[in-house]
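ESCALATION

Customer reports they have been waiting on this structure for their group meeting. Please prioritize. Original submission:
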Amino acid sequence: MANAWIIPPLPMAAVTAPTSVGAAAYLANDYRGMVWEVGGDLGGPTDGGYFMSVDVDLGSDRTVDTMLLLGLAGLIAGTQCYVFAATEAQGAAFTTNYWRSPNLLPYASAEALVNGDGMFLWSAPDDGTPPLPARYWRIAWITPARVSIRARRIVLGERIVLERNFSFGRAVGVRPFGATDFSARGVLLRRRAPTLRTTGLTFASTSRDEIEAKVLPLLERFNVTEPVALITDPAPHPMRTRRTFFGPLIGDLGAIQRNAAGWQWQANLVSLI
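Update from on-call: job pushed to the front of the queue and completed.
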């Protein structure tokens, strides 16, 4: 089991894509009902398949070591997947002097969420190898047949990994927005509504340096209004998508000094995905 990752999303100046059913800019907002879709025939086969992509402009060169594409569906077996990066000086054309990843798995895990949503995950190696800080980022797919794909949110950022992992026990559950009641005659009164996943972690052995340099800046920037991504166990596993959450932190956002050397921080989150 790997230590949990917390990925604060970087702001995006622009998100663009070829012909789409839903605007690519939807990938940068946090509204649950808005999705990006790209479909079908985008001009014929390229490199032995059908090419689709989405581009992100971060506005300036920024360090990115993790990319998530959440709520992803529609990709088929045999899909090739690549991540591209280019600096501000190199430009967004991705024709020369850009970095490209090897062929990646289109989905982060075999198991999807109950609504069929999957996830894409790219992470830079921990040894600091490329890509370097870059302004322009692309995720591209080459599929063996015409398909339509959709996604809900793209996240690019620099992950926070604490030296000591969260303590047991970990809480998981759901927050239902529907309701069930009964009339005076015993008739079922039911209001169906979405259900959001929740998780709660306690980092019980965190150092003062980590609290000051990582945790408090995170809380000050994102607090209860701006979502963050959380992967409770980023190691490859069929359930890795179910171990990924994206949403605002809730509850007590403080940290407690438990003794002279140790601090405790509780991270509770309601997932929008």
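Sent to customer with the following note: The first strand starts at residue 5 and ends at 7.
Escalation resolved.
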